[in-house]
Amino acid sequence: MTEIIKKNIAILGSTGSIGTQALEVVDANPDHFQVEVLTAQNNCDLLIEQALKYKPNVVVIGNDGHYNKVFEALDKHDIKVYAGENALASVVEMDTVDLVLTALVGYSGLKPTIRAIEAGKNIALANKETLVVAGELITSMAREKGVNIYPVDSEHSAIFQCIVGEFHNPIEKIILTASGGPFRGMSRAQLEKVTKAQALKHPNWDMGAKITIDSATLMNKGLEVIEAKWLFGLKPEQVDVVVHPQSIIHSMVQFEDGSIKAQMGLPDMKLPIQYAMAYPQRLKSDFPRFNFANYPALTFEQPDKKTFRNLALAFEALSKGGNMPCVLNAANEIVVAEFLKEKVGFLEMSDIVEHCMEKIAFINAPTYEDYVNTDKETRIKALELID
C-alpha cells in the first residue's frame, strides 16, 4: 500500500467561500492535509475560530487593526500571529508549506502568488484575477521556477481534468460553460431596474458577494476567458463560451480530431478544490452524486454579449493584451464595490469599465511595476467617473 504523505497547506483567504470549503475538504481528508497557514483580511472572529480548530503554525490578519484581538486569542495556543499585506506575502515562503491555496478576492491575490512562485511553491489558484491582471508574468515565472498552477475555478478545473492524459494532443479550442446568471434572457431595459438583492441571488452556486455580482454581469465569465488563455497556453480565438443554465457540464475541450471531452457533476466547489489540493490523486469523497434521471434535459445557448457587455469587453481586453486586462479588472473591482453600496446602477458598471479601457494609457509589454501603476490609476479613474 502506498504511503500517504501529508501536504501542508497555506490557505490565503480562509474565511471566504472557497477558504471555508477548503477546510471542509481538510476535515474529510485528515490523513492527506495539514493546515499550516490561515489568513483573512477582516473576519477576525472566524479566523480565530478556525485557528483554534486546525492549530496552524501561523495566522495572518490582513487588517492591522484586528491584530491585538487575534494575537491575544491565539498566542497562548502557540500559534504565531502576524498582520498586514507584507506578512501575507511572506508566510507563503515558509519552508513548511507544500501548497498555497490562493482564495483571496481580486487584485490582492497577485503579490502573495508571485512570492509563493518565487519560493517554488505549487499553487492551487482560486484567485482568477491574478492571471487576468498579470497572466504573462505569472505563467513565465511558474515555468522558470518549475511551479505547477492547479486551477480551482470549476470551469478551469474541468478543462484541466479533460486534458489529463492528453498533454501531447493539441487543443483545438476550449468551451467554458456559463449558467447565464440570474438575469439570463433579460433585456437592457429590464436590467436598468435590477437591484443589489436580485443580483446577489445566483441560481446554481453559493459564492461570495463579489463573484456573485460578476456572475450576474457575465464579467466573471470574461475573467475566466482571460485566465483560461494563460492557464492552458491558448490564443484568444481558441476560447469559446456557451450558456448552459443547468451548470452540470462545467466546461469542455475540443481536440484537433473534432472530439469533445466534458467534465460533469453537480455544482459543488468542494470537488474542484479537492482535485487541486490532492492532484494527481482523486480522493474518495461523499459529495452528492449526479443522477441523469434528475436532469432529463441539458440545454445550451449563445451568450448575449450585446446585453451583457462585460463579456465582450473581456474578449476585447484579451485580444489587445498588455495591461488592458489589468485595466478591465481594476475598473470592475471598483464598480462592483460601488454597486454593492448601491451607488452605481447595474448597467452603469460596464459603461465605466469601457470608459476606463479607453482612457488609461495602453502598455504593450508591462512590468510588475506597470501593473501596480495601471491598477492604481484605473481605480482612481473609475471612482472619478462614479463621483
TrEMBL record:
Enzyme category, top tier: oxidoreductase
Key word Metal-binding present: yes
Pfam name, any one: DXP_redisom_C
Domain 1-deoxy-D-xylulose 5-phosphate reductoisomerase C-terminal per the UniProt entry, residue ranges: 149-232
Known pathway: Isoprenoid biosynthesis; isopentenyl diphosphate biosynthesis via DXP pathway; isopentenyl diphosphate from 1-deoxy-D-xylulose 5-phosphate: step 1/6
Domain DXP reductoisomerase C-terminal: 264-379
Organism: Fulvivirga kasyanovii
Binding site for Mn(2+): 153, 155, 224
Catalytic activity: 2-C-methyl-D-erythritol 4-phosphate + NADP(+) = 1-deoxy-D-xylulose 5-phosphate + NADPH + H(+)
Record keywords, A-Z: Isoprene biosynthesis, Magnesium, Manganese, Metal-binding, NADP, Oxidoreductase
UniProt: NADPH binding residues: 15-18, 43, 127, 129, 208
Limits of the 1-deoxy-D-xylulose 5-phosphate reductoisomerase N-terminal domain: 9-135
Cofactor needs: Mg(2+); Mn(2+)
SUPFAM superfamilies on file: 1-deoxy-D-xylulose-5-phosphate reductoisomerase, C-terminal domain, Glyceraldehyde-3-phosphate dehydrogenase-like, C-terminal domain, NAD(P)-binding Rossmann-fold domains
Role description: Catalyzes the NADPH-dependent rearrangement and reduction of 1-deoxy-D-xylulose-5-phosphate (DXP) to 2-C-methyl-D-erythritol 4-phosphate (MEP).
UniProt-annotated binding residues for 1-deoxy-D-xylulose 5-phosphate: 128, 154-155, 179, 202, 215, 220-221, 224
Protein name as catalogued: 1-deoxy-D-xylulose 5-phosphate reductoisomerase
Species lineage: Bacteria, Pseudomonadati, Bacteroidota, Cytophagia, Cytophagales
PANTHER family, per database record: 1-DEOXY-D-XYLULOSE 5-PHOSPHATE REDUCTOISOMERASE, 1-DEOXY-D-XYLULOSE 5-PHOSPHATE REDUCTOISOMERASE, CHLOROPLASTIC
